[in-house]
Write a structure and sequence with these properties.
Helix 1 packs parallel to helix 3 and helix 3 runs parallel beside helix 5. The chain has 236 residues and is α+β, with helices and mostly antiparallel strands. 33% of the residues lie in helices and 18% in strands.
């Protein structure tokens, strides 16, 4: 949200039907405004937007609050996780590029962060889905160079620049590396699958989570060209 005039703001919305939109909310800075509290960060709203035929910004004419993100009491990780979801939506989506499934995933991630679901798996699930939706999900089931399936007798490492796992036979440099266990690769595939509910019973050991975070953190940073600002505040 940014100031536009003495009384109005430019608001960025992520909509289910049209993707990310930057709109003018006229009168939003007034004490009594037509949008009430609907334009807070991480709220779910019903909106009415006047589309502009020229290159100007669309105009938000109505916004009704339907759901507000409520982090777990006393849990800063839950709060920062919500902010991280918003950061990734803004940074990794394009205007007017609709992703209904991604909208549903973001809404579901916020609901999980408000409830009892594990913070690390809830955030990781959303990261993998957004990578999948923008075509940047790494390959987890085979070597990206030779096609050797994960679970064979070979060892695998992760190469972010090549978009997935690389088996030991295809490595061409002698730099230090971390080996990825087949069970970790299977967990990543499970978390990234399309179903909204199939992964809910997933359990990851601390060692597996370290491998998962190594892969996901490096991939997100590689795609963005930087490390996400909110990632440093998450407790994993």
């Amino acid at each position: 949200m940014a100031d536009f005039s003495e009384s109005s703001r430019v608001v960025t919305l992520f909509t289910r039907d049209f993707g990310k939109l930057a709109v003018i909310a006229k009168g939003a800075k007034r004490l009594k405004n037509p949008f009430e509290a609907a334009l807070d960060l991480l709220t779910v709203c019903e909106v009415v937007i006047l589309r502009k035929s020229s290159s100007g910004l669309d105009i938000l004419t109505e916004a009704k609050l339907r759901q507000r993100f409520r982090p777990r009491p006393g849990d800063l990780g839950s709060l920062y996780g919500g902010y991280y979801v918003a950061e990734l939506l803004d940074a990794l989506s394009e205007e007017y590029d609709a992703h209904p499934l991604l909208f549903d995933e973001a809404k579901g991630a916020l609901e999980r962060l408000s409830g009892e679901a594990p913070l690390n798996l809830s955030v990781t699930r959303f990261e993998l889905v957004i990578l999948r939706e923008i075509g940047q999900l790494p390959v987890f089931d085979a070597c990206v160079a030779c096609g050797e399936p994960v679970g064979s007798t070979r060892q695998f490492t992760f190469k972010v620049s090549q978009g997935g796992l690389i088996c030991v036979s295809c490595l061409i440099e002698d730099s230090p590396r971390s080996w990825i266990e087949p069970q970790t690769a299977a967990l990543l595939q499970s978390l990234a699958q399309t179903s909204l509910t199939a992964w809910h019973d997933t359990v990851a050991t601390p060692a597996q989570m370290r491998e998962i975070r190594l892969i996901v953190n490096s991939t997100i940073a590689y795609v963005l060209g930087r490390r996400p600002k909110m990632l440093r505040y998450l407790p994993f």
